[in-house]
Amino acid sequence: MSDNSDLVTLLAAAAAGLTLHAGRDLLAGHAAVLGTGWAGVAWRIGRWSVLVESTLWRASSTLTYANAAAAVLAVTALLALALTLDAPGGWWRSCGAYLSLAGLAATLSRAGALAFVAGLLVLAAAAGVRAVLRQAAPAVLGAVIALAALIPSFPAGAEPRPLLAVGGLLTGGAVAVLAPRLRGRALLAAWTALAAAPPAGTSPRRRASPRPAAASPPAARTTRPRRPAPARRRR
Fold first, then answer.
1. Could you tell me the pTM of the whole model?
2. Distance of CA 153 to the CA centre of its chain
3. Does 59 map to a domain?
4. What is the pLDDT of residues 106-148, one digit of tens each?
């Protein structure tokens, strides 16, 4: 019970603080939580990540607990989306929602993901499905890109790939911030280029050059034994 009460107190304090200082301080708040947890996985920093069952590294940030970090990031992501709906067009709000979702993905917390989906449904019922999807889709897509680039660093038996993770984080941020500002053909071209891009961590396959067919050995000529010529009879 004490753990649950501490978690509720932490969430209430985080929500209250973010509501009172919901400006650029919001971005700084989840940038700290995201940055420590995400860097803990990308660079295997033990104080900011946790090894679960000796198989996967999960982001825990300075909260030292993956599910606690996921709970805070789910709340801040919903708050950032609500602020974006209230005053669309601010790049820092879009970036804040994206950073929160990228950090939430790095925790690999199913409970945190379900909490965010439940809150998103409530937000859609209150503000309208189309408006919520217009603001949430770029942030979710950017977080998926960041997660895909971080996947090689999750397994405990694999070497971390921080450069790939940094590239995915920057690419996802560009998608989350720039996609809501695109309209018409520019938006269609951006979605087409993104769909045609190869997945993170994969290299384009080389076409295998056709191998020359192995020359078959010449068929052995079968020689039939010659029949002896019939002897001529003397007259």
1. 0.71
2. 12
3. yes
4. 999 999 999 999 999 999 999 999 999 988 999 999 999 999 9
